[in-house]
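Model it.
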Amino acid sequence: MDKKRGRPRNNEAEASILAASYDLLLEAGFGAVTVEKIAERAKVSKATIYKWWPNKAAVVMDGYLSAASARLPVPDTGSVQEDIRIHATNLTRFLCSREGKVITELIGEGQFDAGLAEAYRTRFFAPRRQEARQLLERGVTRGELKESLDIACCIDLMYGPIFYRLLITGDTLDGAFVDKLLALAFEGTGV
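Modeled.
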């Protein structure tokens, strides 16, 4: 019989910690969030937080993701073009929202904090890439896209310009841009 060590997580305390870390992140930014402030707001001990998360970056990312995930559903309309359009448009809207702008801050902070960079890569970006991969693989399976499609490169082609505008140029990010971008991308993917 395989027994887990220690007490299981208290769902109420966990929810309180995640909500506190998310609220503090939005209010003050990642740099100003501390485990002490999270513990104080959540009305738990720092030891409780460190028992469940290895560092500030992990708890902040979990708080952020628990709040953000509901805003990024994965569509299944029966059309790969429509699914990708909805997915990319939802992501763009999210990135332009107050909550989404936190990502740019986390990316910036991640340049100096390897733990944070690893957390946002594995916990936010990797799942979004996996969602896009599933949408494109569905399109290949249904015969809407070439079987030889380089899916990883296609994801970069479709989503990379969104982050380029978000992080580098500051140019407009909206549905019209996403529509133009995807029309050009799909021209080369076999549709």
